[in-house]
Amino acid sequence: MAVPVKHHRPFFGRLKQSSRKAPMATDSTVRFIAHFTVTNSDEYRTYEKGFFPILRSHGGRFLTYDDAPTILEGTYEQGRTVVLEFDSEEALNTWWNSAEYRELAVHRHAGTTTHSVVVIHSPPGR
Q1: Which of 30, 66, 97, 102 counts the most CB atoms within 10 A of its CB?
Q2: How many CB atoms lie within 10 A of CB 62?
Q3: Rounded CA gap, 102 and 86, in Å?
Q4: Kind plus residue range of the DSSP H or E element containing 12
């Protein structure tokens, strides 16, 4: 049974998408997809405030988010889905394992339930 969701942001600040166009995806481009539910809004806000400077410093790009995506099949836990992009798997791993992100991630762990995946390959050119 799908969870009914509405477009509202009770715990989330508004995220701004970059006005810069993301570079064309190559076969080394990776996407990081996270879905999370906020369990402690204060911890999450602390995480959110520090997130973008660290992401940018590692060459990561914020592509999009959705608080209420259309459910086509299966069930969906209410929360936020975020898509990030990196030029390579190495760049993503450098960001993920960096001391500054690991320190900040303590607040994400304390304030959310998160499920994350990495999609390594882009579709072939047409």
Answers
A1: 30
A2: 18
A3: 18
A4: none
Dmax (CA) of the chain? 45
Report residue 74: phi and psi, to 5°.
80, -160
- Give residue limits of the domains in the chain: 30-69+77-119
Q: List the structure tokens of 70.
A: 């259309």
* CATH 3.30.70.100 for domain 30-69+77-119: yes
**pTM for this entry:** 0.73
Sequence letter at residue 28: S
Residues in CB range of 94: below 8 A, 6 or more apart: 58
> Which residues, other chains included, contact 103 with Cβ-Cβ below 8 Å and sequence gap of 6+?
none
To the nearest 10 degrees (0 to 180), the angle between helices 41-57 and 99-111 is 160
What does the pLDDT look like over 76-108, one tens digit per residue?
888 999 999 999 999 999 999 999 999 999 999
CA 112, distance to chain mean position in Å, is 13
